[in-house]
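Protein Record: Sequence and Backbone Structure Tokens
======================================================
Tokens: labelled as protein backbone structure tokens, with as many entries as the chain has residues.
Task: work out the structure tokens from the sequence, keeping to the layout shown below.
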Amino acid sequence: MSRLHNKVAIVTGAAGGMGESIARLFAKEGGLVLATDIQFEKMNTWVQEARKHSLPVECIRHDVTSESDWQKVVEKAVHLYGKIDILVNNAGVYQPMETTELTSLQRWNQILAINLTSAFLGAKAALPYLKTSGNGSIVNISSIAGLVGGNGAAYSSSKAGMLLLTKDQAVEFAQFNIRVNSIHPGGVLTPMTEHILPADALERSA
């Protein structure tokens, strides 16, 4: 398989779950992948295993809320592969049904920083290289909660914000032939959600 032959992709939140799966699949499809996550040791374990099977994956520790960290990620991708074609903003934190009344300002700011501001910072940092790609792509991993709400004020707001950020940047970046899309999955069983989702959540969200 080589649908992504020689395409350079940055995938955030890749220590496990959806991010790891995305990074692995991109590499299997011929992409050159830089996986990022704040949980470096966990991520590095699977990356080193993948490299033993000749998958072209590298990794870097990354706090997605840090503008300086984003610059380091972009610089490493360009140093390793010479360009950037794809940015997958997958990193996120899940808020287990916290009500407005029980959500502190600190928690609100944290969730929006990780789930939404990070996507803005990523696009801003990668944009100069996506412009020169000729066929750049940004994929934002939002949530069904960003369409219908019901998963806590901060979480749903952050995911809805990602949808509107996607729409705005799709228009803004079209002149550079950069596509911007968002994906809105329902319940996905990952290490982040397995202790939070009720037993029938996957069936109800299918």
Q: What stands out?
A: Confidence is low (pLDDT under 50) at residues 192-196, 201-206.
